[in-house]
Amino acid sequence: MEIIDNKENLQQILKSLPEQPGVYRFFDNKQNLLYIGKAKNIKKRVNSYFSHVDTSSGKIKLLVKKISDIQYIIVDNEYEALLLENTLIKEYQPRYNVMLKDDKTYPWICIKNEPFSRVFITRNYINDGSEYFGPYPSVKMIQTLFDLIRKLYHLRTCRFNLTPANIASGKFKVCLEYHIGNCSAPCVGKITQEEYNDSVMDIRNILKGNINLVTNHLKNLMNKYADELKFEKAQTIKDKLTLIEHYQGKSTVVNPAIHNVDVFNIITDENTAYVNFLKVVNGSVIQAYTLELLKKLDETPKELLQIAIVELRQRFNSSANEIIVPFPLNLTIPDITITVPQKGDKKHLLELSGNNVKHYILEKKKKQELVDPNIQIEYSKN
Predict the structure, then answer these.
(1) Are 20 and 41 in contact (CB under 8 A)?
(2) Which of 54, 127, 191, 197 is the most buried (most CB within 10 A)?
(3) What gap in Å lies between CA 26 and CA 42, rounded to an integer?
(4) Residues 340, 341, 342, CA angle at the centre, nearest 5°?
């Protein structure tokens, strides 16, 4: 890391900046952090601020005028620079950087880290080893998923500490949930930990969008019960398969052969960018989210989309190896294919993402009109 201590030496130091990928930070003469940026070539990018001042926007001219110190951190490639930039911006929130607007706490579905895990909806993300799936901005989506889970698997809802010793001691009694068929009563040993864990594994796969794994598991189980002449149990499994097939039929939007992709589309207005994210697994949209970014330095749609891609993939813990976007990006992400579709199912997904952005903006406009009937929101698709 190099520190420029003196504004008089800026020109000299600018010449000695490394021609490597990394992150640079601008400070004023009081060491206040002004801006964090990433670059494929630090020297070329930082020098561009000073060499094109006359043609820059008023906001950039003001920024350059305030720069007194510069720091930089070298990384291996541009994508690592983008990741580091995202982390530092969220930590320090510099005045001239894009602001990620997110004023809502969306719910998650939690698989609790405990014996005979509970599965429930929560807005509190706790780092206790539990698994969290989401967040889900759509109340309809999370409720549909949760209702499906409750119908398929009779998991406990109580907070008892169901250790083997506690269960064996007979300290618990079955409750109303068991009597009405909503709980399998692990508290009194009516289901083994292994059987219960099989249900939790199915739920985990449903939440990840891997529904085919669940249906294959249930079909094998149904056939096993049928072979053993346990027809009542086999019928119960068949009913579960019907529920899953009904849900899968409603949720599939494109060819199920589209296994695991992230879709991004963007619309911008004068001050804000709206980026929609769709997580598609086996042809089904399992997550949908629109992020607002408040511009600070007249950032281009490409710059804004890159910021949003990193933020949203991290936020949703995405492992998709293909990203669908509306225009080419000057960005290489290791082991990731960036696709700009021209036709077919992937083009349909891109259009669906774009429609989600438009709907988000229209809903925002309606809410703002309730406060100020004269307000107008102008936007364009880029």
Answers:
(1) yes
(2) 191
(3) 13
(4) 120
Please give the structure tokens belonging to residue 361: 């903006």
Rg (CA), the chain: 26
Q: HSE of 17 in the Cβ direction (CA atoms, 13 Å)?
A: 31
How far is Cα 334 from Cα 340, in angstroms, rounded to an integer?
Answer: 17
Is residue 291's pLDDT more than 50? Answer: yes
Average pLDDT over residues 338-357: 95
DSSP assigned state of 22: E
pLDDT digits (tens, 9 = 90+) for 19-61: 999 999 999 989 999 999 999 999 999 999 888 766 567 888 8
3-state secondary structure (DSSP) of residue 299: coil
367-to-26, 360, 364, 376, 377 alpha-carbon distances in Å: 38, 11, 5, 12, 12
Residue type, 379: Y
Residue 180's Cβ-count burial label (10 Å; 0-12, 13-18, 19+) is exposed
CB 93 within 8 A of CB 115: no
Cα–Cα distance list, 82 to 14, 307, 331, 340, 377 (Å): 21, 7, 9, 20, 30
- Dist CA 146 CA 120 (whole Å): 8
Mean pLDDT for 298-318 is 92
Residue-level pLDDT at 83 = 93
Q: Which residue has the tokens 């007194």?
A: 68
Amino acid at 249: G
Alpha-helical segments (H) within the chain: 10-15, 42-51, 58-66, 78-92, 139-152, 164-168, 176-179, 193-208, 211-227, 231-251, 301-315, 344-371
Question: What pLDDT does residue 3 have?
Answer: 44
